[in-house]
Specification:
- It is built from 16 helices and no strands.
- The chain is mostly helical and 411 residues long.
- The chain folds into two domains: 194 residues, Growth Hormone, Chain: A, CATH 1.20.1250.20; 189 residues, MFS general substrate transporter like domains (Growth Hormone, Chain: A, Up-down Bundle).
- Helix 2 packs parallel to helix 4.
- The longest helix is centred in the N-terminal third of the chain and has 32 residues.
- It is globular, with a radius of gyration of 21 Å.
- The relative contact order is 0.15.
Length: 411
Amino acid sequence: MLPGAQNPFHALRHRNFRLFSIGQFISLAGTWMQVVALGWLVLDLTNSPFYVGLVSTLTSLPILLFTLWGGVLADRVHRRRALILLQSFMLADALALALLTLTGHITVHWVMALALVHGTSAAFEVPIRQAFIVEMVGKEDLMNAIALNSSNFNITRIFGPMLAGLVVGSVGVAPCFVLNAVSFVAVIVCLLRMEESDARPAPSGASALTTLREGYRYVLDQPQPRALLLLTALYAIFGFAFVSMLPVFARDVLRTGAAGYGGLMTAVGVGASAGALAMAALGHRVARLRIIRSAGMLFALTLAVTALAQVWWLAAGVLAVAGCTMILNNVSTNTQLQTAAPDHLRGRVMGFYSLMVLGMAPLGSFQAGWVSEHFGVPMSLALGAVVTAAGTLWLARPRTTAGSGARADGA
């Protein structure tokens, strides 16, 4: 182990987090399988790229509408029980999709309706799940737990689509939906087996609207969370949107086919997984805002180099670094926001963070697509590099915030 490193799986000493990680790993694998299969299904039903994009938009739309209310709920409910209920809704959604497909009754309108149901469940589930992590591990192991959770996401992003491709190619899309439904059973079982935690939000007598306003005041009045959330939005709109343009970049710039595109996606996933494990092992050794600044500038540099790349191997190598810096930034930002937030506001802060990460993603895909359509993908990447670099220099500069320690502020 490197000097100064801690066990990268340190947070797994908590039984509840071990169960959580097992359930998440299985569920995320199923989710990635469904994402791939759903795209094929919609294309098969409609033969229209527009409908493929529309279904993706309908899945994301509830994030924009309801995630802040999900953060409010996270500060008012028993989080573990709420997660069990929401995971059950998502299981029913996947099961309905599977049954409709298996019986031949599936239509694009059913797919669109179920996409809205899934997106609505996710809008409430994500901030509650994020705020629940600190209940399982405490603030001491929070960064390690967030990094391991991110590693789960990125490892399953590598092999989940590969497995889906094999299943779809051999037996069709319906088994992918069945397996995703089964994966939610694993999550629910793991949640039910957890020990009860005392670190739960205290009941609030205030109305939901008053509770939401309290969250607004906190993130708008405090310089650090305000800056970090604005920076996250900039990354989501102008930086991380590069992923949505990789198919066009592979075909039109690198002159490679589907295999080349898959290799680029794998490179991003491998780099992200490495970044998550690095944060788990070494993240406690470096001030979080220093990581955010350094990773943000390096991420901007990777976008600029990718914009100039003309050969596949160079693009793949640089994109692996981009994936790594994305995760370094996300894990550090998530941890800093949760650690600095008062316990009674953590769910609402995670609601705002989820809105920036997930809710802004469709806007990012839209702007990247528009710029690429009119000026080419390299110009879109270059624009992302300039905006993220400028945003990082301005918003991630050292600042003093009440309640935040020197290590967190990068002092």
